[in-house]
Amino acid sequence: MNILTLCDRINLQPEIKSRVIEFTNGFDFNLMNKQLKDFQNYEKMSEALAELQTILGEDTEKIKILACMLKASADVYEIYKEKGIGDEIYFATMKCYTRFIDETYRMTGKLYFDRYWWTTRQAGCHLFRIGELEYEMKHIDGDIVIGIHIPSDVDFSPSAINDSLVSARQFFSNHYPELSNAEYRCHSWLLDRQLKEMLNDSSNILSFQNRFEIFDEGEVGTDFIEWLYNTKTTDYAILPEDTSLQRNMKKHLLSGGVIRNAYGRLK
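and the corresponding structure tokens:
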């Protein structure tokens, strides 16, 4: 797999793609071969990213770091092939780059890559998009658990979530048999029990939440604002009220309420 093919197959935004290719044509990736390879070691991801940024130097538009992430992601195609993981999952996983840039554009009006702190997981072959959800092989206290993540373009219907979960269990059984009995966890604002007071019983969010045993109420966070309101503002008074959840959440926040990123394990 090469960067150009990857860009084409994930439909990377043309303006971003042209800038990435322009950069890669005059760049020697051997300069950071160690760092890109270290993404494949879960414990070394953060250190490798910091080293990579130091080597790259000034990168105001984040094209350099995006090109490096795409290079590492293209390289791990060989791991997919060795493990017998099909192209459908590979490209679905790597479309995160296009999705992240689209998300930032919707909020800021700028085509910009700002999720480099997250994509070490895709570039290191630790996270896979399987159907509607993403699954990360997380190292926690010496064990590996499967972390469930909810992409912004998810079909959150119960049937679609069921299909994804069933496919994920089959995926890990086939390609990572040592994880066949791994615990599945989710850490998200969508697991905050207070949502039950803001949604009706037929809500897809509550259907998802009810799949989990909440074992930690979690920390207070504001990241949910980005996903629910498509903005990063913390001026609650100006948040939109286009849906019942937006309205109820806004009321909750203006009255002094908070939302927690709760921890749950799949029942």
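(Above: one complete record from the training split.) Residues 1-125 form one domain.
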